[in-house]
Design brief:
Oligomer: heterodimer
Number of helices of chain B: 0
Number of strands of chain A: 11
Strand order of the largest sheet of chain B: 1-9-8-3-4
Helix content of chain B: under 10%
Shape of chain B: globular
Distance between the termini of chain B: 37 Å
Largest sheet of chain B: 5 strands, mixed
Strand content of chain A: over 45%
Number of strands of chain B: 9
């Protein structure tokens, strides 16, 4: 158990819809990262938040957004969903300071777009 | 971040040591080597990381060459549960704390432990 909790585990929805994925980091971790894993693209970094502020963006679509709340949990919002958004979405967290600190991953949310 | 090269697949007999190589010939002085693994579609699991010295923990050992251009992850006694995709990642570390620390995953090595 990594200590990172993601909900829901599975999500099935239709094209054009909007969903919210939730992540609770390990106790004390200030950084939250979101990654997407699809069959053809592998694991790709989407976005990072550190103590409530956006720190870095990767290959995140404009239809996607995220935020980190004062209690440090994070949400990834996906809107105007397309078939190609079907993927596993992972959240990871790491400790403050971060130098030489590993990221610990949750078990992911499997998103299926019908 | 430095690019890494790993063999796409390897087999290992159960109970034997699994030695997974990684080439990172363009690594720079402030880059750590991290190893993760992913079992089926579970979340990537952190294994070990190091900068210059060899490292060992309860899961594995990490051997980094003196020039730091390559490393080897060693699972001392592989079991069937070690069957997974293993990722070697090189990540720059900003000692000022101002950087971002996202991981760039390649295709990894698919390790199959054979009974």
């Amino acid at each position: 158990d990594s200590g990172v909790t993601q909900t829901p585990k599975h999500l099935i929805t239709a094209t054009g819809q909007r969903v919210t994925l939730r992540c609770s980091p390990r106790s004390g971790d200030l950084s939250v990262y979101w990654y997407q894993q699809s069959l053809d693209q592998g694991l790709q970094f989407l976005i990072q938040y550190y103590n409530g502020e956006e720190r870095a963006k990767g290959n995140i679509l404009e239809r996607f957004s995220a935020q980190q709340f004062p209690d440090l949990h994070s949400e990834l919002n996906l809107s105007s969903l397309e078939l190609g958004d079907s993927a596993l979405y992972f959240c990871a967290s790491s400790a403050a300071g971060e130098v030489g600190q590993p990221q610990h991953f949750g078990d992911g949310t499997r998103l299926s777009i019908l | 971040d430095a690019k890494t090269t790993q063999p796409p697949s390897m087999d290992c007999a159960e109970g034997r040591a699994a030695n997974l190589p990684c080439n990172h010939s363009t690594i720079s002085g402030n880059e750590y080597v991290y190893w993760y693994r992913q079992i089926h579609s579970q979340g990537p699991q952190y294994i070990i990381h190091g900068l210059k010295n060899n490292e060992t923990n309860e899961m594995a050992s990490l051997i980094i060459t003196e020039d730091r251009k390559s490393s080897t992850l060693i699972l001392p006694h592989a079991t069937l549960r070690d069957t997974a995709v293993y990722y070697c990642i090189v990540r720059v570390e900003y000692y000022s704390g101002a950087g971002s620390y996202q991981l760039t995953f390649g295709k990894g090595t698919k390790l199959s432990v054979i009974p």
